[in-house]
């Protein structure tokens, strides 16, 4: 067992790939297609994360598949990963980040950005898609639309509907796949890893 935390940006990028849906399996070469890292770097990171009990692997023929190993250590690593994704977004989109911070201030529960901004395909005309598992002040958000001259689409679900694993909801599936968590990252990670 490693004595150092040993999290670097490459490790966070690898974990970010796993955070797109939280239920996918990846093999080493597939990880290299998603990220600008070499086969050797991907293998080293994946094996190290498996040793730390964040990931687990299984052999299918000659291919070794890695997936998330649910547990407290994985919850903490993926909470850090979600914060990393938020910081990267804040560095790249300071204007939108300012709006999201103000929305978070008038919202309770989990606040996520999804849609074109979350998956990096936003244009000048893109609207801001927000998912809130909890409550929000819709009038305050309307005021932000006017102030910033941008369309903000907010979808609010009660927390029990969001955390329920029995119901299949395509919107929740989409939000879990492509998102940037703006508020309560650990709560979100705990919900998806249970």
From TrEMBL:
UniProt xrefs under CDD domains: NT_KNTase_like
Domain named Polymerase nucleotidyl transferase: residues: 111-155
SUPFAM superfamilies from the UniProt entry: Nucleotidyltransferase, Winged helix' DNA-binding domain
Ranges annotated as spanning the membrane: none
Domain of life: Archaea
A GO molecular function held by the record: nucleotidyltransferase activity
Protein name: Nucleotidyltransferase domain-containing protein
């Amino acid at each position: 067992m490693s004595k150092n935390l040993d999290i670097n940006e490459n490790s966070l990028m690898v974990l970010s790939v796993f955070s797109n849906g939280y239920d996918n399996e990846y093999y080493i070469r597939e990880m290299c297609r998603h990220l600008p890292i070499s086969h050797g770097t991907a293998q080293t990171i994946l094996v190290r994360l498996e040793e730390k009990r964040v990931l687990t692997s299984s052999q299918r023929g000659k291919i070794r598949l890695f997936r998330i190993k649910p547990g407290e250590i994985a919850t903490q690593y993926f909470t850090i990963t979600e914060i990393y994704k938020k910081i990267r977004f804040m560095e790249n989109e300071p204007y939108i980040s300012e709006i999201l911070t103000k929305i978070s201030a008038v919202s309770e529960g989990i606040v996520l950005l999804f849609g074109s901004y979350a998956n990096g395909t936003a244009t000048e005309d893109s609207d801001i898609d927000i998912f809130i598992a909890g409550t929000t002040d819709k009038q305050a958000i309307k005021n932000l639309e006017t102030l910033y001259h941008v369309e903000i689409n907010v979808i609010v679900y009660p927390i029990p509907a969001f955390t329920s694993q029995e119901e299949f909801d395509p919107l929740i599936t989409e939000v879990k796949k492509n998102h940037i968590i703006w508020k309560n990252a650990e709560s979100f990670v705990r919900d998806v890893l249970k």
